[in-house]
Design goal:
The chain is mainly β. It is built from one helix and 29 strands. Helix content is 12%, strand content 36%.
C-alpha cells in the first residue's frame, strides 16, 4: 500500500512528521477580520526556524524573508466579493487579475490564495471578512488518512476519516470544507480471473465534514467518507485526492472487493419452480452464524413495508414470508452485521431482491366450452368477411360514379364549346397581293379567256 502524498509536484510522507513550527496569534479585529491558514513550504536551510509572531491590525500581516510559499485562507461574508490583496509596495491583486506565481480559488464565502516567492514586508487584505477569525503560520501541511483495509466485502459500509494537519495540529476553520474537493476513485487492477477485469474507473464517494451520515460533528476538521463498495468483486487500484485551484494531494494503493458473505434468495420447489413465500439465507464458510444479524424489510404490492430481524443458526437456513399473499411486485432489502471466524467485523448493505407473484392460470375448458368458443370465432370471421365484401363493393360503386361524373362533365364542356364555335359568324377578309397565288389558276381560268 502506497501512502505517498503529493502537493504541487513535491513529495510528502505522513510518517515521520518533521515540522518546523510557527505559532498563531489570535487577536480580535474591530470591523473586518482575516481568516488565514498559511501553508509555508520552507527551504531545508530554514527547517529549524523557531516560532514567529505576526501582528494583525486592520487586516494587516507581515511576511518575513524566510518564507518561500504562503497559502492564505480568508473567510468572507456569504455572497460578498473576493478579497483584494495589497502588497507591501501598495500594488493590488484581484481574483480575476494576478501574476502567474499566484493561484486563487474562490467560493461564495471564502478565498484560498497561494503565493510563491512572496515579497517580504507588510501585507493587507481588503474585503468583507468575518469576525472572530485567526491567523496561523505553518511550515508544513500533511494529509492524514485512516488506513484503508486491504479487503472489503461488496456493499460493505466502513467509516474512514481524513484531516489536514498543520504543524501537527488539525486545521479547523468554518467554511473550510467548501474550499476542498474530496474524491475517491477505483479502477480494476486487471488481475486475471477477477470478476472486475477491465472495469472502471468508478467514482465511489467523497469526504464530508457536515455532521451527516457517519460524520460525527460538523466543521470540526475531521472529514468522514461516504464510500460505496457495491462494485464487481476483484482487485482495484484506488486514488483518494483532495484538491482545488491552489493545491492537490492524493493517496494511492490497492484494495480488494470480495463477494458478499451473506446471500438471500427465494427457495425452490422440488419441481424447480420458485417458492415465493420462503426465503433462503446462505452464509460463506468464513462467517459465524451465531454472530450474524440481519435486518430485513419487505415491501408488498399495496405499498406496506414489513420489518423483521433474522439471526441464522445454520450456514443455510430458510424462513417463511407470511406477508407474501397477494399477486404483484415485491421487494426485499436490508443490512447484515456479523463477525468472521477470524474476529473481523463487517456491516454490509444487501442487494435488493425483487420478484413478482403471478396469479394462477385459469382451469382448463370443457369440450362444450371449447366448441362454443370455436363456433363464436367462426361466426365472427364470417361476419367480418361479409363486412369486408360490402365495403369493397361500396368503394367500387363510388369510384364508378366519380369516374362517370368526370367523363360526363368533360363531354358536356366539349359540346358547348363546339356549339359556340359553329354559331360564331365568319367575317370576309380582303386578300393582299402577296397572299394571292396565281399558279392555282389554269390558263383557261385567266381573265378574258373563253372556254
Amino acid at each position: 500500500m502506497n501512502w505517498k502524498t503529493t502537493l504541487s509536484g513535491w513529495s510528502w510522507y505522513p510518517m515521520p512528521f518533521g515540522f518546523a513550527i510557527n505559532s498563531a496569534l489570535k487577536r480580535p479585529l474591530r470591523a473586518l477580520c482575516v481568516a488565514a491558514s498559511f501553508f509555508l513550504i520552507a527551504l531545508p536551510a530554514y527547517a529549524g526556524l523557531t516560532a514567529q509572531t505576526t501582528e494583525l491590525l486592520d487586516n494587516r500581516f507581515r511576511i518575513d524573508h524566510a518564507v518561500e510559499q504562503i497559502t492564505i485562507l480568508a473567510q468572507r461574508r456569504p455572497g460578498s466579493a473576493p478579497v483584494v490583496v495589497v502588497k507591501p509596495d501598495g500594488s493590488k491583486w484581484y481574483a480575476h487579475r494576478h501574476p502567474e506565481n499566484v493561484s486563487w480559488n474562490v467560493t461564495d464565502s471564502s478565498d484560498l490564495i497561494r503565493i510563491t516567492q512572496p515579497t517580504p514586508g507588510p501585507w493587507q487584505l481588503v474585503g468583507e471578512v468575518v469576525d472572530g477569525s485567526e491567523l496561523r503560520l505553518m511550515t508544513d501541511v500533511v494529509l492524514r488518512h485512516d488506513p484503508l483495509p486491504e479487503r472489503v466485502y461488496r456493499g460493505e459500509r466502513i467509516k474512514l476519516t481524513a484531516e489536514l494537519l498543520g504543524d501537527n495540529q488539525r486545521i479547523v476553520m468554518r467554511d473550510f470544507e467548501e474550499q476542498l474537493n474530496w474524491e475517491m476513485h477505483i479502477r480494476s487492477a486487471n488481475r486475471p480471473g477477477d470478476e472486475n477485469f477491465g472495469a472502471g474507473p468508478f467514482m465511489i464517494g467523497a469526504y464530508h465534514d457536515g455532521g451527516k451520515g457517519l460524520d460525527e460533528m460538523p466543521h470540526d476538521g475531521i472529514f468522514t467518507s461516504d464510500l460505496d463498495f457495491n462494485y464487481p468483486a476483484g482487485l482495484y487500484r484506488y486514488k483518494m485526492s483532495v484538491s482545488n485551484e491552489v493545491f492537490h494531494r492524493e493517496l494511492t494503493g490497492e484494495i480488494e472487493i470480495l463477494p458478499q458473505p451473506v446471500r438471500i434468495a427465494l427457495s425452490e420447489l422440488p419441481d424447480g419452480k420458485t417458492n415465493h413465500s420462503e426465503l433462503t439465507i446462505t452464509l460463506e464458510p468464513e462467517v459465524s452464524p451465531a454472530d450474524l444479524h440481519l435486518d430485513l424489510a419487505i415491501e408488498t404490492p399495496d405499498s406496506n413495508r414489513y420489518q423483521f430481524a433474522v439471526t441464522p443458526s445454520e450456514p443455510v437456513q430458510t424462513m417463511t414470508l407470511p406477508m407474501v399473499e397477494a399477486f404483484g411486485n415485491y421487494r426485499i432489502d436490508g443490512q447484515a452485521a456479523g463477525t468472521r471466524f477470524d474476529g473481523v467485523e463487517f456491516f454490509i448493505d444487501l442487494p435488493e431482491l425483487a420478484f413478482y407473484v403471478a396469479p394462477p392460470p385459469p382451469p382448463p375448458l370443457s369440450p362444450e366450452e371449447l366448441a362454443a368458443i370455436a363456433l363464436k370465432e367462426a361466426q365472427e370471421r364470417e361476419a367480418s368477411a361479409k363486412s369486408r365484401v360490402i365495403w369493397v363493393i361500396s368503394i367500387i360503386n363510388v369510384l364508378l360514379l366519380v369516374v362517370g361524373a368526370v367523363i360526363l362533365i368533360i363531354w358536356r364542356k366539349r359540346q358547348r364549346l363546339y356549339q359556340e364555335l359553329m354559331a360564331m359568324p365568319l367575317e370576309p377578309r380582303e386578300l393582299t397581293p402577296d397572299e394571292v397565288d396565281l399558279n392555282q389558276f389554269s390558263p383557261e381560268d385567266r381573265p378574258g379567256s373563253a372556254r
